[in-house]
Predict the structure.
Amino acid sequence: MSKQKIYILLTDTGTLFTRLIKLYTKKPYNHASISIDPELKDVYSFGRKTAKNPFIGGFVKENLRGEFFTDSKCTVISCCVTDAQLNKLKALINKIESEKDDYSYNLLGLFAIMFNKQLSRNNTFFCSQFVATVLQKCGIVQFTKPPALVMPHDFMEMEDFNVVFQGSLTKYFLTIECRATEIITCYSSHGQEKFGQSLAIS
């Protein structure tokens, strides 16, 4: 059975709104996103749709290389999934993305969680609620509490997830780019010679 990996990105963007959330949580991260590639090219969550207004939000495909995330601290964690789970996850995210205008940000639910209260409404999520919901619906994780009570730091406590990276988001991308360069260099220095010999023989 083939094993693939998915990635959960936890970030601290340092905005006024997120600092207010951290006053309550006392945790280092206040935002959660999900991705199916280690380069974090396609990253999905529920959050603000405009950088300057935290109260207008919904389903977002995040641009991590944009200005909003420039100075973000992050933790990247990964989990192995089966092909069936990965395909189900892709289909569910694609469905939500295609219907994104029908979804909204669960701001009331975010405030309710501060009092350990669950407030779930159809087609509304805050970031960690969205990530927890898609993980659970795809049979990847079974939480011991409702997704509407899952907070970003809860993902770090899950047994099946491993920490891949901790530090600045900028440094993570530099690390990824360095690895890609090393692979290309290794391929160029060793692979071309082997292919050349093979072609010469033929």
User: Anything to note?
Assistant: Confidence is low (pLDDT under 50) at residues 192-202.
